[in-house]
């Protein structure tokens, strides 16, 4: 399976696959990832047509360097098997499966995918939006080491509904931290949930900053107007890039050969900072290379 660590996923935009105009518009949007949605955004009577439109979009070759993902319907629906089969046959970059509950769900889905895509090119993304999934996070994340699973996508709208809770962001902070820890323990990417009010850019910015500070790679979005904010906040700043380059340069200096800790710009800098610096530069380079 390809290494997806430095694939930019700052902005991952859900687009209803049942809407041809939305699919056409997505070709021109600066989102890192387009998620063709067959689930929440599509009425039951439109599911079959949405699947056909999503597959045609995947095979069109008209979306440039954008990562293309299909959110299929959950395992307990009559559309699941055909959604998953067609997404694999259409060579999506990833399949996003909602309402994951247990590690066994991941195993079953992976086995199904391997019947369709023996090359292991297609990733599996798991939506973490059910109480049972939160309880099982470590076991689910552990499958990243040997299966297709690469990414967690948080879904706080459904989690709030299942908890019978108010949709108050503050109550999900412990879950955010728990999910990031599980993801990082096993090398997974992790994306924040959507911000529902696309007419409130200040609120979106607050959520993006909070998610970035906790350790998320990017944010899922519901409207094109949200892309710029997510792209800006989840990209390394010019200051961070400059600092990272200085650290890399300092450790390359022969005078520092073999040292585990050196002083860079007046700060004690260790090998862990060198690793972080290399990750920062790699992400910045990936963003620059993927300009849409």
Task: Give an overview of the whole structure.
The protein has 292 residues and is of the alpha/beta class. Helices cover 45% and strands 16% of the residues. The chain has 12 helices and 10 strands. It has an 8-stranded parallel β-barrel, surrounded by 6 helices. Strands 9-10 form a two-stranded antiparallel ribbon. β2 (33-37), α2 and β3 (67-71) form a beta-alpha-beta unit. α11 (238-252) crosses α12. The longest helix is centred in the last third of the chain and has 19 residues, at 271-289. The radius of gyration is 20 Å and the shape is globular. The mean pLDDT is 92.
- The sequence of SSEs as H and E is EHEHEHEHEHHEHHEHEHHEEH
Q: Total number of β-strand segments? A: 10
What's the pLDDT, averaged over the residues?
A: 92
- How large a portion of the residues is in β-strands, by DSSP E? 15-25%
Distance between the termini: 25 Å
CA-based shape:
globular
Query: What quaternary form is this?
Result: single chain
State Rg: 20 Å
The number of helical elements comes to: 12
Please give the order of strands in the largest beta sheet.
Answer: 1-2-3-4-5-6-7-8
Helix content: 40-55%
Profile the largest sheet. Answer: 8 strands, parallel, barrel
**Helix-and-strand structural type:** alpha/beta
Q: Show unreliable segments.
A: none
Summarize this structure as a short list of keywords or feature phrases.
alpha/beta; 10 strands
């Amino acid at each position: 399976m390809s290494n997806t660590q430095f694939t930019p996923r700052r902005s991952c935009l859900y687009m209803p696959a049942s809407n041809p105009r939305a699919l056409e518009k997505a070709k021109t949007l600066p989102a890192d990832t387009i998620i063709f949605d067959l689930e929440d955004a599509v009425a039951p009577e439109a599911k079959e047509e949405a699947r056909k439109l999503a597959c045609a979009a995947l095979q069109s070759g008209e979306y440039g360097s954008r990562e293309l993902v299909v959110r299929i319907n959950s395992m307990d629906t009559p559309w699941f098997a055909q959604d998953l089969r067609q997404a694999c046959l259409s060579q999506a970059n990833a399949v996003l499966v909602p309402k994951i509950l247990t590690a066994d769900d991941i195993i079953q889905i992976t086995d199904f995918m391997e019947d369709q895509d023996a090359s292991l090119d297609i990733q599996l993304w798991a939506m973490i939006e059910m109480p049972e999934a939160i309880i099982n996070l470590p076991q689910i994340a552990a499958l990243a080491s040997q299966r297709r699973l690469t990414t967690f996508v948080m879904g706080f709208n459904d989690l709030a509904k299942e908890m019978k809770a108010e949709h108050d962001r503050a109550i999900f902070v412990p879950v955010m931290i728990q999910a990031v820890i599980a993801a990082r323990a096993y090398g997974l990417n992790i994306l924040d949930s959507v911000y529902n009010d696309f007419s409130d850019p200040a609120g979106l910015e607050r959520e993006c900053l909070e998610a970035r500070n906790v350790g998320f790679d990017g944010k899922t979005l519901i409207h094109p107007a949200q892309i710029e904010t997510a792209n800006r906040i989840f990209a390394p700043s010019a200051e961070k890039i400059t600092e990272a380059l200085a650290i890399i340069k300092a450790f390359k200096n022969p005078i520092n050969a073999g040292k585990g800790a050196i002083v860079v710009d007046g700060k004690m800098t260790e090998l862990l900072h060198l690793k972080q610096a290399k990750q920062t530069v790699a992400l910045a380079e990936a963003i620059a290379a993927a300009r849409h």
